[in-house]
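Sat 14:20. Reprocessing the chain from the morning session after the first attempt stalled halfway. Input below, unchanged.
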Amino acid sequence: MDSETMSRAAEQAHIVARALPYLRRYAGATIVVKFGGHAMEEDSLAAEFSRDISLLKQVGINPVVVHGGGPQINAMLARLEIKSRFVDGLRITDAEMVEVVEMVLSGSVNKQIAGLISQAGALAVGISGKDGGLIRARKLSPAAKDGEAELDLGFVGEPAHVDPRVIHALTGAGLIPVVAPVGVGENGETYNINADTAAGAIAGALNASRLLMLTDVAGVLDAEKKLLTDLSVARIRELIADGTIHGGMIPKVLTCIEAVKNGVKGATILDGRVPHALLLELFTEGGIGTLIHK
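Finished this time. Tokens:
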């Protein structure tokens, strides 16, 4: 074990020692974690994330991981010389492209994450939203802008219904589900689903105690770029209306709002680049991100 690994292990042990008062709060709880961004792309952060997920399972919490894979999809499409087109951050996905998306998300990325968690000491199983009818999807049709025709995104979908039985079966057997965000349509077609959206829908269907959204920013920031640590749904709507929350943060907070409305006790947007972000959020007073609640 090298010195950096020993230092990270010591840091993890220190956090756990401080966490003892919080463990009772989450004993037996389901925590849904959306894993993406730099935390997923950097080997050291991915390994650290896997160790922390494994630790959560070991102390009696049921983590469920939902992951993205945009950079990996981009790399594969480039290798295959398939050009991507994005509209408002959404990839227009034709029949050829959705096969590549499913191959990358449900194949290499999904199994790599599950493998890292298993190497860290827990037993993880990689599945997709198509397995066991987990995510029934419908075609996503963005609202048309004034004077423009409705945009056809192809095989980009959104959850229509989540059946959590396959997740319950896995967690009940002591396993950690790792979910690739693809769903199945009414006629068996495959839909590419935004990972944030999939995580929020799964968290709601599970009545999870927490939804943790790992991002590349500290959380929701105010007009002075300072972290807002605690936000109600009503306050978020005010901040969207006055422009404080804007751009790519809007769909993230709306996903959190939807999850909270569907029974999740709290949803947090936090910086996945921070060492042991999950443990610090769950097991320290106040956490490190933006907690969204009713």
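Residues 173 and 246 are 42 Å apart (CA to CA).
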